[in-house]
Amino acid sequence: MEYVSPEGLRLDGRRPMEMRQLRAEIGVVAKADGSAMFEMGNTKVIAAVYGPREVQNRSQQITDQALVRCEYSMANFSTGDRMRKPKGDRRSTEISLVIRQTMEACILTNLMPRSQIDIFVQVLQADGGTRSACINAATLALADAGIPMRDIVTSCSAGYLNSTPLLDLNYVEDSAGGPDVTVGILPTLDKVTLLQVGFHLYSMWLQRTEC
Amino acid sequence: MRNLQLSLNQTQKIRLQTALEKLESLSSKSNSNSCVTVADSIPIYEDGILKGHGTSDRKGELVATVCGVVERINKLIYVRTLRSRYKPETGDIVIGRVIEDYDHTMVFQIYFMDLAVSVEAKASFLRKKTHMCTHTAKENLCSSFKIELIAPPLTGAVHQSLRRRTAVDELNMRSIFTENDLVCAEVRSSQNDGSLQLQARSQKYGKLEKGQLLMIDPYLVKRRKQHFHHLEQYGIDLILGCNGFVWVGEHVEARDTIVVNDSEQLAKKSGGTSMDLDEQVENHTPPETRQNICRIANAIRVLSALGFNVILEVIMETVKLSNTMNLDIHEMLGSEFYVLVAEKEAERRSSLSQKEKVILACNLRTKF
User: Fold this and answer.
1) Which residues of A touch B37 (CB under 8 A)?
2) Which CATH architecture has domain A22-151?
3) Which superkingdom is the protein from (chain A) (predicted)?
4) Which terminus of chain B faces fewer neighbouring Cβ atoms within 10 Å, N or C?
């Protein structure tokens, strides 16, 4: 299948290095301490942060830093065919872990000892790049909750199809089976906090991407 | 202003919009460059500064770690967050609910925003644990269970009859507070394990009865000299807790008498006699007072929904406005009243800023 037309346009009319439209909204969940909605094109994610609050399970309490927990779920209506089990499967557990680790890296957890921060992320519409959209939404929600952080984490995905590097893959491009990489960075500190590569990425492609 | 869901008609929308724009134009002029977001650098104008909350050091540069407004007090620089959980400070007046009584200490819930989960799961949800230890003076013990003080031993000079609390006192505490009682207290200190100690220094603190509790965002309540207000014209006590809990209740003269009554009642109940008529009359809250409580509570609801600071003057103005409009209590939560309150607040603030200008001009004139 042709993912990039001879004119250099992608299936949804974007250039290879073009992102989808971004839209963010803060304060969408009334009872949460901080909340945000983040949209990347048709991908739509909602995040809510509760805390810092007392640790619910005493045995998990850490005496010198805060406990960060994250729960990722997909709404039943988020994908093309209705999802049976929106959370608890292998993929959600893995993404929960990824988001938790990324957020833990930027929250100043040592300032809030013996407390717990809960991050709940839910995908309302899935159209590729849910991982990066979730991280962006979670960061905004944390900033809204007034939790001290090193920097704002920003994340985006990229892929390689039809011997062209593509930025911010949508669902069709994501499921095409090419390599994809999700990067999360702290822009002002200039550090990478998340780097995930799916599929094999050959070094010759990498050279081609550089030029 | 967040999560304000009103069904406004077209004119109301426009009026609200203009009122809010007016408010914005009034506030943004003063310090627009002091707003920071996470990882923004904060300019330093002098040497030897002290880093406060919400700041950190990055390669010799001062950066913000939260979103908010930069505050400078002498050499101290800190960032005040726009919205965050209540951070207790010593001397704050808070209102809390007793959630459990374990290990010889009362545990109070002083901050939960989550109404939905608070009822069933109150023991585990959204709370800051606080310990309250009673220290009853000896002579009080026989006559009444007065929550006299939860005293720092250092003030022993004032309270001569201080002694170590005993198991008897702990049992007595049970008769003063039970689960789900509302209590007003002052933050005494925070322990290094993250828990707080509360104290009820004088008669005005203690159990709260006959009134309404409102839970608003804690950043709307500013720390002030006076948090207890007695509104004589309405016969109402208003307590603005720093943790965002606001108490509107019937005025009580001296709180300890209530406690005495309670304990006597308890004794009577245990003796098998029912409450007699006198006491019922005594405990009855007249309907006018109840209406006043509701009116004031609704005024606070409107103000907090609009995101205005909840201070006494503004509350009273809102109540007056509703009275002059001849609105029923339930009508205060209608969209028309929201718009009116927003307009009134814009007017008030603009007149305040004009007054400031006049005062400034007068000062200048007297100088030269």
Assistant:
1) 143, 152
2) 2-Layer Sandwich (3.30)
3) Eukaryota
4) C
